[in-house]
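S.,

Sequence below, as promised.
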Amino acid sequence: MRVPLRRSELLMKFVRYLILISIAALGVLLAAESTLAQCAMCRASIGANSSFIRNFNIGVLVLLVPPVSIFCTIFIVAIRYRKSE
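The prediction came back faster than expected:
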């Protein structure tokens, strides 16, 4: 049988998660400039057309959404299943 957590323990757990999420968000924001550059071959083949480069980067991000969503869903289901046993 699980012992319920006290309010202070819950607050500490929440603060820990908040700090972890903040650090992860900061890392993503710092790496955002380099991730929009694409690889050198893609950048060279696109050329100097800035509107096309912008649309290409948006297209890459749109194509990234489904695999990341699937991975996150599987990860969450696995964690919930592990906790239920």
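The first helix runs from residue 7 to 35.

Coffee later?
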